[in-house]
Design a protein that fits this description.
It is built from four helices and eight strands, in the order E-E-H-H-E-E-E-H-E-H-E-E. It is α+β, with helices and mostly antiparallel strands. The protein has an eight-stranded mixed beta sheet, sandwiched between helices.
Length: about 200
């Protein structure tokens, strides 16, 4: 834990010096927006250089919520999660609710919630519009997996549109495997592919 953040249970400092990724995606438990993207927004990863911002991932705090709700509304309008949802998530699943910051500014979040037994689900992951293209989404995905391992979850699950090949490819790179397709998972005509990985 970082010595300058005593109120946080866990802080991750991450480097953006990683391979390039070409897909933007975001998973969320709700209808997808009108675009072809799914709702798990992951920006592409440029090569690191001297001007790269300091990126940290840490447990979410109540002061982050207004910014997260703004990003949700900006990207998903009527399908956005509300501030109320985030406050509930903070109370119910604090260890699975992470925020990512770029040079100290809140840039996005991920939310992993428990299922039955030792399983959890990646409910949501979002990077704000002005922070996309910096690799923050993939960092969040990696740290969400790490957080699940720290909580000793045995399996992490997510759902994605069966037609979203780029998203499926990204998840497979992160160790997820396709296990089932559920018809009308998010409502009529909203089928979803279920993917899982062990932790």
């Amino acid at each position: 834990m970082s010595s300058d953040t005593p109120s946080r249970d866990r802080v991750y400092q991450v480097s953006s010096n990683r391979e390039s990724a070409s897909h933007k995606l975001r998973y969320v438990e709700g209808s997808a927006p009108d675009t072809d993207e799914c709702r798990l927004c992951v920006g592409s990863l440029p090569q690191a250089n001297k001007s790269d911002p300091l990126v940290t991932v840490q447990i979410a705090a109540s002061e982050d919520i207004a910014r997260l709700a703004f990003f949700e509304k900006q990207l998903y309008d009527k399908d956005a999660y509300s501030s109320l949802f985030f406050y509930q998530a903070l109370r119910q699943w604090p260890s699975g609710f992470l925020t990512i910051k770029s040079d100290g500014k809140v840039a996005g979040y991920s939310l992993v919630v428990p299922l039955d037994g030792r399983r959890a689900t990646l409910m949501s992951l979002l990077v704000g519009k002005s922070f996309q293209g910096q690799g923050l989404g993939r960092v969040l995905l990696e740290q969400a997996i790490n957080a699940g391992q720290a909580e000793e979850w045995q399996e992490l699950e997510l759902s994605v549109s069966p037609d979203n090949a780029p998203a499926i490819k990204l998840y497979k790179r992160a160790g997820f495997q396709s296990v089932n397709t559920v018809k009308d998972y998010l409502g009529p005509g909203e089928d979803r592919l279920i993917m899982r990985r062990t932790l």
